[in-house]
UniProtKB/TrEMBL annotation:
It comes from the Bacteria. Gene3D superfamilies: NADP-dependent oxidoreductase domain (3.20.20.100). This is Aldo/keto reductase. GO terms for cellular component: cytosol. Residues 13-280 form the NADP-dependent oxidoreductase domain. Pfam families: Aldo_ket_red (PF00248).
Length: 288
């Protein structure tokens, strides 16, 4: 399984914002996502935590039982390694039990894509690699990836891992541009990782944020949207997808109309001048 073999699609749909009582809404949104061509769903063991650990995974298990057609042909990614109050644990003992719990809650025999949600500084990369390789060899994980790692932490892990590391899930948006210059996206292009992108419209702040940066970025996006006859949502997402890494925005909206609007960004590639206008608005400085 290499990152080219895994079908990440152009967009993914994320479960972070759900609580377990939103089963009907989740079904409606998964249906809208699948109709819009999204086959990649993203969750984590900690999502839906207002109603307890595992709530979002449990909800996916319920969808699989009660509305299996909604998940037919979909790939479901989940994550582990965050422990509220600790805050991180990537020990063999912990991850093995976390994976077993995720398998049980989602009602699957194998997880399509498993991320280490955040780096545990107290786990040696050789030990983490051995744990992940063991879980792949045991048939519990089809593919492995990481989220929110530094480029150096990924190099450390890759030095020991036998299974291909196929993706790095990161925060990236017109309001969060650090991955462009901190080595994260350079590394993803160097190794050809897929880059599933969380909060690609900064949780809505691109459209409603009041910081100076948000207002500058919104002004740039609105001007480009008006010029191109596209929506601000499309332009905001295309800031992420125009970047030449294999970015895959994970949409977090629970509004079907917004989701349909978002996927229209698929055919929009910003020209250099427009992309740099947004970049400069984000930094607040003109490039030399
Ligand atoms: N790996 C990690 O550490 C990590 C961390 C966070 C998230 N994630 C993943 O990334 C996914 C997406 O994250 P996200 O939900 O932050 O993504 P997002 O798509 O940037 O934000 C979605 C939020 O923005 C709001 N929004 C969207 N368009 C808007 C508009 N035009 N005006 C006002 N509000 C608007 C949505 O509200 P409506 O619902 O009303 O549209 C929703 O609350 C998560 O579900 C999860 O799978 C991963």
């Amino acid at each position: 399984m290499t990152s080219q073999d895994f079908d990440f699609g152009s967009f993914a749909y994320g479960f972070w914002r759900y609580t377990e009582d939103q089963f009907d809404l989740a079904c409606k949104m998964v249906e809208a996502a699948r109709e819009a061509g999204i086959d990649h769903l993203d969750t984590a063991d900690i999502y839906g935590n207002e109603s307890g650990i595992g709530a979002a995974e449990r909800m996916l298990g319920r969808i699989a039982r009660e509305a299996p057609a909604l998940l037919e042909g979909a790939t479901v990614a989940t994550k582990g390694g965050i422990v509220f109050g600790t805050p991180y644990n990537s020990s063999k003992e912990y991850l093995t039990s976390a994976v077993d719990k995720s398998l049980g809650l989602m009602g699957v025999e194998r997880i399509d894509l498993y991320y280490i949600h955040r780096p545990d500084m107290l786990t040696h990369p050789a030990d983490l690699a051995a744990t992940l390789d063991g879980l792949v060899e045991a048939g519990k994980l089809k593919a492995v990836a990481v989220s929110n790692f530094t480029a150096a932490q990924i190099e450390g892990l890759k030095a020991y891992l036998k299974a291909p590391l196929i993706a790095h899930q990161i925060e990236f948006s017109a309001l969060h541009i650090a991955p462009i210059t901190d080595g994260t996206l350079d590394q993803a292009m160097r190794h050809d990782f897929a880059v599933p992108v969380w909060s690609p419209v900064a949780g809505g702040q691109v459209f409603s944020g009041e910081s100076d940066q948000a207002q500058r970025v919104r002004g740039a996006i609105e001007a480009i949207a008006a010029k191109l006859g596209r929506s601000s949502m499309e332009v905001a997402l295309s800031f992420v997808t125009t970047f030449p890494a294999r970015t895959v925005p994970i949409l977090g909206t629970r509004n079907p109309e917004r989701l349909r609007e978002a996927v229209r960004a698929k055919d929009l590639i910003l020209d250099r001048s427009d992309w740099y206008d947004i970049y400069e608005a984000a930094t607040g400085e003109q490039l030399p």
